[in-house]
Amino acid sequence: MSTYAQKKGFGATVWDYLTTVDHKKIAILYLIAGGLFFLIGGLEAVFIRIQLAVPNNDFVSAGAFNEIITMHGTTMIFLAAMPLLFAFMNAVMPLQIGARDVAFPFVNALGFWLFFFGGIFLNLSWFLGGAPDAGWTSYASLAIHSKGHGVDFYVLGLQISGFGTLMGGINFLVTIINMRAPGMTYMRMPLFTWSTFVASAMILFAFPPLTVGLTLMMFDRLFGANFFEVAMGGNTIIWEHLFWVFGHPEVYILILPAFGIFSEIFSTFSRKRLFGYSSMVFATVLIGFLGFMVWAHHMFTTGLGPVANAIFAVATMAIGVPTGIKIFNWLFTMWGGSVKFTTPMYYAFGFIPSFVCGGVTGVMVATAAADYQYHDTYFVVAHFHYVIVGGVVLALLAGTHYWWPKMFGTMLNETLGKITFWLFFIGFHLTFFIQHFLGLWGMPRRVFTFLPGQGFDAANMVSSVGAAFMSAGVILLLLNIVVTQVKNVKVGNDPWEDGRTLEWAIPSPPPFYNFKQLPLVRGLDALWLEKMEGKKGMTPAEPLGDIHMPNASFIPFMISLGLFIAAFGAMYHVNDKPWAIPVLILGLAVTFGSMLVRSLKDDHGFHIHKEELQDEKGAEA
Amino acid sequence: MQAEEKLTYETWPASPEKSTLEAKNKFLGFWLFLGGETVLFASLFATYLSLKDKVPDSTHHLAKDIFSVPLTLVATMLLLTSSLTSVYAMYHMKNFAFKKMMIWLGITVLLGFGFLGLEIYEFNHYVHEYGHTFTSSAFASAFYTLVGFHGAHVCFGLGWILALMIRNYKRGLNLYNAPKFYVASLYWHFIDVVWVFIFTVVYLMGMVG
Amino acid sequence: MKRLANWRLVSLFAMLALALSGCSGKPFVSALRPAGEVADIQYDLMKLSTYIMVGVIIIVMVIFIIVFFRFRRKDDRIPKQVEGSHTLEIIWTVIPILLLLILAVPTVSATFKLADVKEMDKKDSDALVIKVRSHLYWWDFEYEKQKIVTSQDLVVPTDEKVYFDLKSLDVKHSFWIPAVGGKLDTNTDNINKFWLVFDDKKANEAGNLFYGKCAELCGPSHALMDFKVKAISRDQFDAWVSNMKAVKEPEKAQTDVAAQGQEIFNKSCIGCHAVTPDVKPEAARVAPNLTNFGERARVAGILEHNKEELKNWIKNPETYKPGNEMTGKYPDMTDEQLDALAEYLMGLKVQD
């Protein structure tokens, strides 16, 4: 079974990735797929900014514009930001806790393929009669009113990819609870692992309401139900609640891992342990908890009444406190440190002012009575882009540079990386800062054009110019990746030289079993402790022995493919296509058949024998 | 302990459902999954409660007109009993008594099918007697979605337990399949708990109006 | 360096903001030029939260800059590994809580104040209540007690509380007059209520005209679902109401061409568009009421108010408001017919 050392042809590599259950390869799949969707979503953003650069523009039509904004939001949140975070969680979290894989390698692969097929399904809408056009929030009255299959693509695509995310969440939770290396107590876990833990718990409780909301929408649109048909007794506000009960925690699902990434970077490049580690952990958990208590602040203008609005306003403000704690802890991590300005550190530095801006406007929009002015305007657009781009995207870019050597064994070019940062950072502020004012001056969000003479012209132009800078930054990053991979200069275990956590104790990229011997963890920043005592690496916690590994499997791909096929059947059955129902049944048969095969066929995995491990070089634990 | 090992009554561990790392993971992962399922059903309950008796006009029947407690009480009894029998099955599983476990699982499945049969009869009755169909009103959509989701869970649970029984019929218990039996019974209990809530919220509270 | 650049940008934008909102005599759009009690309350809250938040930003930035310059890596020393500091952590937990309390109290009180619509539910209140009904890309306004209906141009008296009763008849929209006060959604399921005050002095400065917008994505022409608000004194308002009420049957056309237009209108348009202000059931009001069309500020809420644009609009509404409900509901017209129709419609005036 030891095929891991062989050179493979192209076909074999593809098959390897189609069937892999290795968390590191799945991470690469997430990175590639998420990166691809990030580029698509970015292109959509560029179209938006071209259309809005000047008043009365006709670069795209009104209908197409709504499709673009809907797909931009949906793609960026569900198909870019989350999968890219999942890429890092997969690549790094098991290494950080000293595990050989995640708890359910098979389910891990299944999660990826569900996300991937869901994303592909959603994006096929562009070629099959039009994309969804009711906004990423897809409010029910408009979504039910929307003609064509756009919204159906949204409902079914997100449903499929949502299952994948949910599985990923459960998987990470079990991994962190059950599979920590000896000595890795909860309060010794790196912050990125902690934030993965809390974000996964939030996924577990936040995604089911979305699943229900999407199911109701699907029943209404495809199977004649009346959940949102007011004339039949339905109620559209139910959708708003279900969506935001999911949607608000979702924001924290994105931002907490981003905080985790920056916590690692600040600490590493300041050569200091994280300031106030335990309060950081506490703040992360508290944010995760409060994240479920504030959803109705997205609905201040829905008319829930002053009592609900006041309660949710105050609850929302409360989240500002743990977030503030984090900002100060980061600053004081650097205080007294020895700060090295690498590319990841550039992003981390840029993150602080950007995210603080997004955070304070967050408190402003929490001010319910004033939010009646901000709501659904460009002020809100500016706010959440400051949080999501200034927080999550900067973290993703930082994480890409920081962990690239660990994932691929090569180092991205630092000079190009820093230029990328400047282009992106300047472009980001140029694009979004002015949008605060646009909102206050009276420009609603999601408008496909604006009339001249309202004072919006110059500001929109500025914003569009900023988008060009951001695009240039992203293109440069791609160039950097290509150049780096072509040069292919391999690096060692700890290429940043300041690594503190376990992932830097093993080769880059790690062998497929990660740790030849599980490491003994003696405190927070396990590797740093050993380094400070003059040791080269971790002390093993076990004698060299056989390692049990899971088998690769093509079944995850098939299960996901089945749902992908079934979704077409479900969707076209409203058009009375004779093939629709058979296709639906066929798809479900593929899915459940594959599940049955998985259930009936024993899969005990395989063992790597001690002797083989001894032959492997460079895998010192 | 290795999952594939052949074990005897003497070497069979006290908690076979979590004696290997894989089993521990499965055990915990499944509990977490049930946590997510709880939120799923909570959302469905919330939807049902806000759409209860919301019909387009007065020609439509309301909850108090259509629900009959005797029928659903029988269904409740069947499902509650099946939960108990699955407990017996797990008791025998822990004692390495494969045959007894299979018998009790068999009874569980039969009771489950009984429940399902009653539910199908019930739905059929509503459709034909009251014109209460999935598409007739928001109330009906919400009712069939909530109760139907539960029914789908029952179906899946029955298929799952049956598949496990058939697959392992010849080879008896080991540490590889014991956790599988265990989580399947956990799932069955969960279905039962959800039904208790459905019985209370939909039927009993429905009768009151 | 980059900090400096940012601050310059900020001041640049601030100046831009002033310049753009500073021109008088033009209709207001901006929430930064409040023209009524509600907008004032909201503007005050904005200012309060901005001050607090700028304070927070300054503190963070000071520490940030010190860190940036003082703790760069100069040598290979290993800094002291500090676990944390309880004093500091308590400080930056307690101070934000206090700051948020300072903000929370006025927020809660304002939230309740803005939602106080008891007056409109009283039996014999003489409060002015306007029922706003939103449709795909146009607005319908019913003055409940005055028993008149108008569309697209909302006419309100200044310096008194005007109560709104909001609902949508197709998909969800949101009713927003930025300069006068924050928005409220028009739901399809239920009626939402709130109040606004239109400040007389500010209204005069704005030429008695405010811009209103739809703020909730409602389809292709969401961006074009504008309306206008004519804010006039109570006397003028009363006069307008009685003028409107005087229109018992459609205005007679004044000229021959207009008479021709009226004939066309009665054949092709009157099925949807009313030209009398009387209150018909909501569901029957499927298109904007045109009783005082000649006195409106815009054609279809967006185009210059002249015959040429009106003809363009009737000729092909789809180019101007994609996805509207008017396209295709009437036969194509010749230029002659359009001329006549425009002449007639522009003559529909109630005030002399």
Fraction in beta strands of chain C: 15-25%
Radius of gyration of chain A: 24 Å
- Strands of chain A, total number: 2
Pair of chains with the largest interface and how many residues each contributes: A-C, 98 and 99 residues
Number of domains of chain C: 2
Which structural class is indicated by helix and strand composition of chain A? mainly alpha
SSE pattern of chain A: HHHHHHHHHHHHHHHHEHHEH
Strand order of the largest sheet of chain C: 3-2-1-5-8
Tell me what you see in this structure.
Chain A: Keywords: Cell membrane, Copper, Electron transport, Heme, Iron, Membrane, Metal-binding, Respiratory chain, Translocase, Transmembrane, Transmembrane helix, Transport. Chain A: It catalyses: 4 Fe(II)-[cytochrome c] + O2 + 8 H(+)(in) = 4 Fe(III)-[cytochrome c] + 2 H2O + 4 H(+)(out). Chain A: It is found in: Cell membrane; Membrane. Chain A: Belongs to the heme-copper respiratory oxidase family. Chain A: The chain crosses the membrane at residues 27-48, 68-92, 104-128, 153-179, 191-219, 242-262, 274-295, 307-332, 344-366, 378-398, 419-441, 461-483, 554-573, 579-597. The complex is a heterotrimer of chains A (621), B (209) and C (352). Chain A is mostly helical and 621 residues long. Chain A is globular, with a radius of gyration of 24 Å. Chain A contains 19 helices and two strands. The longest helix of chain A is centred in the N-terminal third of the chain and has 35 residues, at 62-96. Chain A has helices at 10-19, 23-51, 62-96, 105-124, 140-145, 150-178, 191-223, 237-270, 277-290, 306-334, 343-366, 368-374, 378-408, 414-440, 457-487, 526-532, 555-572, 580-600, 610-615; strands at residues 547-549, 606-608. Chain A has one domain (10-335, 344-450, 460-553, 603-615): Cytochrome c oxidase-like, subunit I domain (Cytochrome C Oxidase, Chain A, Up-down Bundle), CATH 1.20.210. Chain B is mostly helical and 209 residues long. Chain B has one domain: Four Helix Bundle (Hemerythrin (Met), subunit A), CATH 1.20.120.80. Helix content of chain B is 75%, strand content 0%. Chain B has helices at residues 21-51, 63-66, 69-94, 98-130, 138-168, 178-208. In chain B, helix 1 (21-51) packs antiparallel against helix 5 (138-168) and helix 5 (138-168) packs antiparallel against helix 6 (178-208). With 352 residues, chain C is α+β, with helices and mostly antiparallel strands. Chain C has two domains: 1-30 and 115-352, Immunoglobulin-like (Sandwich); 31-114, Helix Hairpins (Orthogonal Bundle). Chain C is built from ten helices and twelve strands. In chain C, the strands form three sheets. Chain C has a five-stranded mixed β-sheet. Chain C has a five-stranded mixed β-sheet with strand order 4-10-9-6-7. In chain C, helix 2 (37-70) runs antiparallel to helix 3 (86-114), helix 7 packs across helix 10 and helix 8 (307-315) crosses helix 10. The termini of chain C are far apart. Residues 1-5 and 18-24 of chain C have low confidence and may be disordered. Classes of the chains: A mainly alpha (621), B mainly alpha (209), C alpha+beta (352).
